[in-house]
Model the fold of this input.
Amino acid sequence: MRARIARVEVGQSREQVHAILGDAPVRRPGHPDDPFATPLRTLELATGAGSAVRVELYVVAAQPAEGCPDVHFRDVPIAFVGDTVAGTGWDFVERSWRGWGGSLAALREARDGRRCPPPPAVS
Done:
């Protein structure tokens, strides 16, 4: 997936990007029957200017880990404004997020990836 994402360029249409990336799931170490979806997640924002922003997150690396979560992964976002790639990578998304009308709390949640359930309360 990493090599395919490197072929994504600003100005390409969403259709072109999906043709490059495909929709095959990404193998999750230790969980062959539960791969990561492609894209992993999609975030949608309506900007104040009336245009739509769509951020699709793609898993590019995964490794087994101890504890929860038992798989750590690295993802790369691709940001579309309208139907066109505006930029890729977390640096671009973080610089643009508030200007698009997104909250920092929503961005943090998107960056956190998979969460573990909270520990049980001590009685």
Summary: The beta strands are 41-46, 52-64, 71-81, 84-88. DSSP finds four helices and four strands in the chain.
